[in-house]
Every structure is written in C-alpha cells, then in structure tokens.
Amino acid sequence: MQVHSSGEKSRNRSVVAKFNLILVLWKLEDSRPPKMPKHYRPPGKKKEGNAAKYSTRSKALKHLQISLPHFRKLCILKGVFPREPKKKFEGNHKTYYHVKDITFLQHEPLLEKFRDIKAYDKKVNKARAKKNNPLAERLLSRKPDYTLDRLIRERYPGFIDALRDLDDCLTMVHLFAALPAVESEHIPVKRIHNCRRLSHEWQAYISRTHRLRKTFISVKGIYYQAEVEGQKITWLTPHAMQQVLTDDVDFKVMLTFLEFYETLLAFVNFRLYHSIHVEYPPILDPRLEALAADQYSLFKYITANSRASRVESQAVSSSDPEQAEVGKKGIQTEDSELRLAQLQHQLPANEPGALMQLVEDAAGDDKDDEETRECKTLFKNLRIFLSREVPRESLLFLIPAFGGVVSWEGDGAPFKETDEGITHQIVDRPTQGHIFLSREYVQPQWVYDCVNARIVLPTYGYLVGRVPPPHLSPFVDDEAEGYVPEYAETIKRLKAAAKKEFLPMPGSESQDLDDPQSLLVEGIISRTEATEAAEKKRKIDVLEKQYHDELKMELDRVPYSAALSKKNLNVEDKEESLPDQDQKAVDDAMFMVTETRKKRGLYKAMQKGKEKKMAHVNLLKERKKKAESAKSP
Amino acid sequence: MKVPKGTPPIDDVKDENQKKNKKKSTKKTLVEEEKEEKREPETLEPETNVPNNQEEDIDGEDDEINPAVEESDSSEDEVAPRNTIGNVPLKWYEDEDHIGYEITGKKIKKQARKDKLDSFLATVDDSKNWRKIHDEYNDEDVEITKKEIRQIRKLLEGKTPHSEIDPYPPYLDWFKWDDAKHPLSNAPDPKSRYIPSIWEAKKVRQLVRGIRKGHIQFDKPKEESRYYLLWGDDSSSREKGHGLSYIPPPKPKLPGHEESYNPSVEYIPTQEEINSYQLMYEEDRPKFIPRRFDALRKVPAYENAVKESFDRCLDLYLCPRTRKKRINIDPESLKPKLPSRKDLKPYPLTCYLEYKGHMGAVISISIQVSGQWLASGSKDGTVRIWEVETGRCLRIWELGEAVQYVAWNPVPELPILAVAVGQDVLLLNTGLGNAEEQQKVKELLRSEAPSELDNSDHSTSIVSWLQHDKHEGIKLKHLKMVTSVEWHRKGDYFSIVMPAVLIHQLSKKITQKIPFKLHGLPVSSVFHPSRPILFVSTKKSVRVYDLLKEKLIRKLETGVREVSSIAIHPAGSDNVIVGSREGKLCWFDMDLSSQPYRILKCHPKDITNVAFHRSYPLFASCSDDGTAYVFHGMVYSDLNQNPLIVPLEILRGHARTDGRGVMDCTFHPRQPWLFTAGSDSVIKLYCH
After folding, report:
1. According to the UniProt entry, which residue ranges have a biased composition of type Basic and acidic residues (chain B) (predicted)?
2. Are residues A451 and A386 part of one domain?
C-alpha cells in the first residue's frame, strides 16, 4: 500500500483514520475478558454430573499409568466393563468407564503384580542381552506368578453367582479343549490339556449326578443344558473335528478370558466334587487316560471315591473327631497310586454291571428332585454300544447321565460288541454289515431326541440307512413362537400316551426284553386307540351335560319357550362373536384415537413385532405346504 | 608317489566342450567343479590318475570300462565320447541313418530300433536290465556298474561319492613336541596360578550367603494344588461390592429349530430366498442360513466357532452395559378399560336416509328445534329445506352465490332461517308454522325501513339492514365475507363472523361490535347455551367473554395449529370441544383448567365441524377425510368426576370430492341421529 498517486492521498488518509478508529474499537473490544469456553469450570469448583462420574478410556489409562494391553487384561480379569453415561461429554465415539470402576482397578493388587512382572521381564531381557544365559534361566524359573482365586471370590461372592455366569466359561473351555495348540498364537499344549481335563471333570460331575436336562445337536456344535443348584447352565461343545482357526481373532484377548475361566471352572469343579464327597483333583486311571477314555475313567473314579468317602464318613462319625482328622490327613497324604490300587480293588475291572450298581448305590440316598429322578431312569434298562463312527465323547457323557449303560468299540471298553445283553447299538453308517438280531441299530440322533422328549422313543424312524426325522431344538417354546413343527406334535402325542397307557410297560418290558420294537409298536397302536376313545368320551360328556341341564330346567319349571329364547340368546352370543375381527379393527382405531402418543407408539411397536412374528410363521407354513405339495405327486 | 588320502582323485582332463555336454548341472556340482579347477595346477597328474583308476576298477565287479559313463566323475577321463559331433541338437540327425562321426571320421550308424515287445521281453529276461540306460548321444545302451550306483546313491545323500574317502581324517601335527630340548617360553608361572582369587572368594561367599538365606534356591518348590473350597462359608459372607451395581452380561441366545443339523424342511430357505439375501443390506442379512445334513457323520466343523467365541469375548469386555426395561405384556392390556359400546347405545350407527338434490357441495346444514325441518346451504347457490322424516325437499331459494352458512332460529315459534351468502346475511321467512306465527315473523322481518336510517349514526360503515325484495326477508350487507352465523338461544340476537365479530339484534335491527379486543382473526363465535357468555375462537385460542360485565373470563389454550370449529356442551357445564385443521379434537373442561382435558387425534385431515347433542351424551366431529366420528361424552354433575369420553363409531359413506369430505354435521335435537353434509352434494342421516 505504499505506492499511491498523489490525487488519492487525501481520500486515503480518511480511510486510514477510519481504519485506525476501527482498530481502536476492536482493541477496546479485545480488552474485555476472553470468551468463555463452552464447558467452563471456574477454578476451585469441582466437576459435576457426568463429567465427574465417568472418564474416558484414555484418561483412565493415564490415571492408572498402565499400558492399554495391561488395562485390557485387568478389565477382563476384574470384570470391569464400560458404562453408558447419560450424556457423552467427550464425544460419541469414546468409551466411558465409571470413575468408581477405575478406582476399583487402581486398588487392585494385581496392578502392582503386573508391574513387578514387567520389571522382572526386563531383568531377564538384560541377562539375555549380556549373554548371561544361566542367570536368565534361573530368573525365568522363578518368575513371579499371580493367582486369581481372590478375584473369583470378589466377583462371585456366592457359589450361585458363579454358577449363574458359568455359560460363557464352559463354552470357552470346551472350545479350547477342541482347538489345536498353536505355537505361533501362543496357545501352549498345557493349556489345551488343562481345558480338556476341566471339561471332562465338569461333564463327569453332571453325568454322575444326572443334572443334564436338555441337549441339541446344532450346526455349530452340541448344546447341553444342565441344572445345578437351580441354575440352568447352557454350554456349547464344538463338533469333534479339526477346528478352523481364522486370522481375524486376537488370541491374546481370548487367552486372558480363558485364564480366568480355567480358574473359575476349577474352583467350581472343586466345590461340586466336594459336595458329593469326592476328592479334587481326581487321579485317573492312566491306562484309560492313555486310551482317551478320560470320561469313563473319571466316572469310575467319582463313583468309587464317593462311595469310599461315604463309608469313611460314616466310620468317622462314630469315632472321635481327632481321629477323623488324622484319618483325613492320612487319606490326603496317601500316594496316588495306592489310592488307585484301592480303587481298582473296590471296582471289579471292566464290569459295567458292578459300576452301575455302584452308581445306584451312590445315588440312592441323595435327595433328588423329581426331575433328576426322571432323568436318572430314562435309559435305565438299556445297554448301549457305540460304534466307531459316532461322536463318542458326547454319547459317553449323555447316556450315563440318563441312567444308561454304555460301551464302545476299542480297548478299555466295559463290554464288547458281541455282548448278548446289548439292547441298542448306535451306528452312523449307510449300511450295517453284521447284524445281531437281539439289538436295535439306531442313529445317534435317537439318543438326543429321547433325552429331549424324556421318553424312550420308538426306534423306527432312526434305523440304519434312513434319513432320521427332523431334530428339534428343546430350547424353543413352540406355543410362544406360534408355530409347532410336525415332529414336535408327534413327540407330544407319544409323551402323552406314555404317561397314561404306557405305564404297565416297564413290567412287560422286563419279561420280553428281546423284542422291544414290537412292544413299542403295540404301544403306539394302543395310544391311537386311547386318543380316539378320549374324544368319544368327551362328546358323550357334553351330551350328558346338556341332558342334565334340561332336566334341571324342568325341575325349576322354566317354561319351554323361555328356555328356547335363552338358547337363542346363546346362539346370538355366538353370532355376535363371529364378526369379532371387524369389531377388533374398529376397537383398534378407537384406541388409536383416544390414547396418548406414547401409548400409541408402544402399541404400534408391539403390533409390529407381532406382525413380524406372524410373517415368519406364515413363511414357515408356506414352505411346509410347498414341500408337501412337491412330495405328494 | 602316492596321492594323500585326503584329496579325492581328481580328473579334469576333460575339455570345456565336454563339460558343457554334461547333463547333470546342479548348482552343487558346479561349485565342486570350480574348486577342482583351482586345485588343478597342484594335483594335475594324468599319469598318476590312470593307475589309481585301474585300482578302483580292480575293486569293482565289472572290469569293462564304459566310455559313455559320463556322469561319474571318475570315469569321465578314460575314453572320449565316441561321437564327435559336439553339442548340437540331436534333432538334426533325426532323419539321417547315422547319428554322428567317430574320431576317425566314420559315420556312426543308428542301431535298429527294437520294438516294444522285444524290449519288454529283454527286460523280463535280463535281471540287470534296471541298470541299463540308453545313451542317445552315442546311441547305445550303457550298463551302470554296481559301484557307480553306489556312487550315485552317495551323491544323492549329499556325501562324498567315493566310499573309501574319509572327509575328516585325524589331524597329523607337522611338528614333533616330545623330545624337544628347549621349551618355547621360559617365563615363570604367573601369580594367579597359585594364589587364591579374592574376587572368586567374594563371589563364593555371596553365593553361600544367598543359599543360606534362601535367596538362591536350586530345586523348584513343590507344586501344590492351587484349588480349595472357595465358597465354603457361602451363607455367612456376602462381601459388599464396590458400590456400583453389577450388571450381569446377557446370556447368549439359545438356538432355535433352524440351527439344528437336521431341521425340518420348512426351516431351510429355498435357493431363491438365499439369492435374495444378497440384495439385502449387510446388516439386514440373516447371519445364519440353515442347512441340512442327512446324517450326523456328515456334519463338518463349524467354521465360525472361534470367531463367534471371540466376538462374545469382545462383547463382554468392550460393550457398555445398561439395564433396559423391556415390558412383556399383552398389547391389549394397554387399552384402557372403557365401558362396552353396547351399553352406550343408542348412538348413530347406520345411514338411514339420504337427501339428494343439491348440485354442488353442501357446505352447511341446520336443523330446526322441532326436529322436523332441515335446512341446507350449498355451493351451487341454493338453500333447501327438507322434511327430515321423508326426505322431501320443501322449498328452494336460489341465491346465486355459494351459501356459507345456514342457521335456524332456535325459537320454535320463529321459523326464521339465517343464511350467510358472500358478504350478506339473509334472514329468510321459511313460511312454516301456523298463521299466527307467520304474522309474527312477517312483522319481525318487515320493519326494516327505520333501521336503515338508524344505523347511519354509528355502524353504517359495517352493516346495512335492507329489505330483501326477491325472497321476503332482511338482507344485512357487510363489508366483508361472512363465514358463520350463530343465534343466541332466545332467538333475538345472532352473532356473525366476518374478519370481525358482530352481534345483531333482530327485534331492534341493531348491530354492535363486541367491545373486546380480539387477538388474531376470529374463526367462529358461539353463545353459551344458558348464560350470557360469548365464546370467540381465534386460530390459536378460544376466548370466553362475559357479555354483561363486558370482560374476558377465560382464555383456553388449545395448543393446536389452527382452530376450525367449536361447540359448547348444552348442559351449560362449561365443557367445550374444539376441532382443529390438523385433525385434533380438544375437549376442554373449563372447571379443570384452561388446557385441554383430552386431545383426540382422530382424523388425518382437517376437522370441519364439531357438534354436541342436545340431550344425549353424544358428540361428533366430521372431517375432510370423508368420515365422521361419534363419541360418547358423559359429563357428570359430580365435580370430582372427570368427563368420560368413549369413541363409539366411525361413520363412513361420503365420497371425497375436490379434496373435501364431510363439510358439516349436526345432531337431531331429540333423537340420537346425526346429519352429515358432504362435498358430494348429499346429506345423510345416520340413525341408531
């Protein structure tokens, strides 16, 4: 702006003056206190509201002075989760933790332990860097370790609380029991073995105490539901196959979870074993273990030990307490092999009859609820043999849980395939080579369906080479869902029949056990007859009631015409109920008119949900119809 | 001179050309060759090699030396290849009967080809046949000796080819130390050889101390079971948490029928359905597509098992948890307990009569107090009077302009009809009633002359009272469009609404403005059925004026966008309904508050009119959507009890024309009947 022609000068001066004036004004304006920030908090005043109650994750990290992986691990172990503040004061995309949760983490001794471990790792690294391998090794052998029992107690003050949260734990442990050990992902073999052991211990307990209630083979694996101390616990075991490992999984997180779950399950198992007077951890028959028949060896152990301890406790109760303590100590210090020898002595080897006897013995005096009793006797008189190709682990768990005797093909099995007493053989192959006439060859689904239906189903549909009837989920409430699959109805009918006409069955079954098939068929016939008879009876009842009513009217001297008109009224009522749909539509419209917007919205949302459900049911019905029409011609 | 054992017998007499011929040219051999070349000047002694080779041959079983065995290192040198053509493609000689030339220049003839059978027979007969190789270059069969095979094997194993050669011989020292006279060094032993080290002693002491104090432990501590009865004293100790409520994670969803390995047919989607999933948004797409396996053995491992488990882990520690109430109730229970509609009978239900005759939309209807006559004004410029019970049209006035409003005088002795047409209000003598009444009416409607002079003083500018010549009656000429006419219950006063509210007195032929300030344009005005109160509604609110005291009593806040109509409960219990252009109906209980007691959102379109029944607890609203709603509106004399409002019936039947539906509705004064006037130029009577 320095080059100006002289003519413009005067005008320019005035412009400059104006500019100066503006500048002065602006300065005046500037001299006022600076504009307050949006959330200004004057000094000395505490934070309030959400900002005081919650902190973002990065702030929490800064506050705790730990790294993100450590924080993550702590959160997982302590069960701390983010919470949703009413107002997200730092933005929507951030994670908020409650300040109390953060202080809770701050006072965790584990935090200090992690720091120690970190320092110790530095020591090891230093030794390594200086090529001082012996020192490094010595240090490594004495690495500080931490335990999680205190955390478990803290998170689950009562045993019930632990059982309530056991679903995820069991699913995870069972999954890892089926995973391969991958060094690149730092999944050591030891952990996998531990998972396997824990899962077997759990299954053995459930099976031995007949706590299993429902089971379901899904594409994802096999679901089980057990009821322990009134808590329904559901878990999923993967199919016994080579599992697929994907890249998009952070195994560090999973292993941290697993660490907690392993400890939790071990303590839960301890408590459960304690409740049936069996020592934990169990010492297993090494021969059976080597044959991968862990479960069977566990069963043997549990049954034998529970019996022994019971006898012992009886003995102890008679003698003085001091002696009892000595005796207990003696038991505890006893060498494992000695105990095994004792066990073998108590248990005639490979004698399933004796085993079952023991189970009965052990279970006899327990105070079981009715359902457990029902479960215990489901497969009571059945001897089941498993072929090579069926999922052995699952069935070995399942059949004893419902009171059956089971054996399998291979070493260490309680009885061989040629055993005469076998009633059912589970096979899963297109054709069966050698057939024993005395037993039935059924597909594995039969067992699962029987368990869910709680009756021994006729084996007709499940024979070898057939496509079995649809396998239905026991977790679905068909009535609430609005659609009952055909096979569910069949099972319901069978169940109803089994409860009434089927009662004398067991007696007759014991007489001619050789041919249960024919008996079952007979049962079916008798059931259908029974249902027909019931229908007839109902009709007769109705007629009878009408007759009685008329009689009564006569006694009351009601004129016939009045009675007629009354009847007519009834008829009218019925007629009026007919255009119910129309009425309902009007009612709906009227409701919409009078109610508040909130209620209307709620009602609409509910109707929407209902419609969705109905649409799904209709889709199912349509598909069913199509399938049937495709089948019929 | 003998070659030292360590060095392999090297024989690189072969010239460069021959080397190229070698078919085996792995990297390893190449390297070896290079090494060999380097050693050449030292060890190249062809004469010595020959006896060496001869020795080897003596060892071997076959004395015969095959000149063509080029692969073996040892025999390469013995005989030059018979064929001298060099490294040329053998293809060139394909068509010739020779394959090359000997060193002397003679042609080498091709051997006769054996047929396959012969060669097969030869293989069967000859046990050594597997060792034979055909050399294409020289066109002859070469038999490999056992020794050579051993060499090949060794080569394959990566060892030295010759079995006799030890690659790592013991080291022989070149210098003899034993009987030397003088030591190499005569220095005395250093001190450290015989004085114990202080530092070592210190180190040892440190270690000893460490061991004694237990800092250093050599054997690992014995591992004890880490598990014990954690929940032994379950009942006694309920440790308190850290103050925040623990929200347990929601359990994973239990599997349904469709997740089964063998679901029923209806759960499996068809191929078209699966294809249609591709068209859906990713988040809408079903996560799991049911599949069916006809046997358990065919079920594969689930590919997402680990992934799903991992997702669950992420949910557990990353998802914020909140408690949300989910009500699981029957939607019907939301509906309030209202009395059954059957108990609230009678009310208009069905269309009983239709009054047809108008050529345009019927804008306004009015019923005479006796309930015998119905007046209607239409867009076609006619006013008609109908006999209610028969539907007969009694009389027609052609007014030439669209009729805005018709209203009967509420006094039964005065059968006067007020009609709003354009800027005029006509007071028409209907000619009904007996002679005495007629006389009275005529008198009322005649004395117009003085009024015309009279109103010159104060209200000339607004209204002029004129005698209507064509249809005997009075014509009130206004300055602006008149939209509604409402009679006072005594039949003397009537109020009209043009952009201002005026009150006319029929007996004195006087017009006066209301002495209040109106906030906004008035929409309609109604007299209170028993008290001297005037309700004037503007677009937003309803103002209630006391006419005697000349002051504002109440202002009712409707909260609607635009008020269209208003009706007062006939019992005089200060209940008002207001209809709005957005389809909302507000019920005001003025004793309760100036806010609506109830807002009913019944019509999707403008409400055109609302009406109360005179004696039955009924009210109705009609709207441009072509429907009329009938409600039960019970007002109790007990002040503690709120009015009961029950929707009763939706009356449909009018066709919508030009975007208008039902234009007006009114109840019969004695019967529970409803008249509705539609834009389809039909008036309908709904009876119970």
Report:
1. 29-42
2. yes
Give Cβ neighbours of residue B572 (< 8 Å, ≥ 6 apart). B528, B529, B530, B531
Structural contact between residues B108 and B99, judged by C-beta atoms closer than 8 angstroms: yes
B270 and A623 in contact by Cβ < 8 A?
A: yes
Q: Which of residues 127-166 of A touch B (CB under 8 A)?
A: 138, 141-142, 147, 149, 152-154, 156-159, 162, 164-165
Q: What DSSP letter does each residue of B409-465 carry, written as one string? A: -SSTT--EEEEEETTEEEEEE---S-HHHHHHHHHHHHTTHHHHHHTTSSSTTT-EE
Give the whole-angstrom CA distance, residue B348 versus residue A289: 86
Per the CB < 8 Å rule, is A168 touching B249?
A: yes
Tokens coding A387:
């072929």
Q: Is the domain of A61 the same as that of A169?
A: no
Q: Which fold has domain B342-447+462-687?
A: Methylamine Dehydrogenase; Chain H (2.130.10)
Q: Does B294 touch chain A (CB under 8 A)?
A: yes
Give me A202's structure tokens. 């759990």
Which residues in chain A (412-471) have CB-CB distances under 8 A to chain B?
A: 428-430, 443-445, 467-468, 470-471
* Closest residue of chain A to B309, computed from CA coordinates: A172
Q: Tell which of A499, A522, A552 closes a domain.
A: A499
B320: chain A residues, CB-CB within 8 Å: 81-84, 95-96
Q: B333 to chain A: nearest residue by CA?
A: A603
Token pair of B3, please?
Answer: 């070659």
pLDDT tens for residues A438-489?
888 999 999 999 999 999 999 888 988 888 999 999 999 888 888 888 899 9
Tell the residue number behind the tokens 């269209």, with chain if given.
Answer: B564
Q: What's the Cα-to-Cα distance from B127 to each of B68, B118, B123, B131, B187, rounded to whole Å?
A: 21, 15, 7, 9, 74
A57 plus A131 within the same structural domain? yes
- Assess A245–B contact: CB distance below 8 Å, yes or no: yes
3-class secondary-structure state, position A628: helix
DSSP state of A218: B
pLDDT tens digit sequence for B311-332 = 999 999 999 998 888 877 877 7
Examine the domain organization and report whether A448 and A423 are in the same domain: yes
pLDDT digits (tens, 9 = 90+) for B146-172: 888 989 998 998 888 887 888 888 888
Mean pLDDT across the stretch A497-511?
52
Cα torsion B651, B653, B656, B657 to 10°: value is -140
Cα separation, B478 vs B497, in Å, equals: 10
Same domain (yes/no): A97, A168: no
pLDDT at A633: 66
Q: Which domain holds residue A623?
A: 585-632
> Beta partners for B496?
B485, B502
B248 CB contacts (<8 Å, ≥6 apart)? A164, A165
Find chain B residues with C-beta within 8 A of A486's C-beta.
Answer: 264
